[in-house]
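I am writing to request your help with a piece of structural work I have in hand. I set the record out below, with my sincere thanks for your time.
___
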Amino acid sequence: MRKILAFSASNSPTSINHQLILNVTERISAHPVTVLKLKEDDFPIYSIVKEKEGFPENVEVLYKMLQEHGALIISVNEYNANVGGFFKNILDWLSRLDRKFLENKKILLMSTSPGKRGGASALEYCKNQFPRFGGEIVESFSLPQFYENFDSEKGSIVNEVFDLGIAEVVTAFSQEIKE
């Protein structure tokens, strides 16, 4: 049984990706899950000058949490056909602390957006980047048109096809991370 760390890559207080994280983590019972809210931390903008001053404490805390968990569920947001700057900044800090900060991590990678592509560009960016940091993406899922396909009050996917799809992805991910 692997411990799972789950978080949204968004810093929005009303993050739709965080809502998707909550929906997915409620489906997992075979593994202990910790849901993290990255948006509650202030990560300074990375620069070589800042790095020479030392790594921020919250970067080191996040790094330690990543190391304590064998699996990750990450839902990435998208701005202008790319991953959001908040999360890209976190990736920059972590990769400077340890280039292989995702080593031996099995990842369920997700995205959602109000648009028809469901954050597909941000999802693809992370699919290309995470293996460079040592992570293994074992499953992925994109939920398009969030507001049409998700009931925020109930925290549920209302489109039956997408609900079945995420159920299959979660089941496959849970099986893949058995030790």
Q: What stands out?
A: The chain is about 40% helix and 20% strand. The chain has a mean pLDDT of 96. The domain at 4-176 is CATH 3.40.50.360 (Rossmann fold).
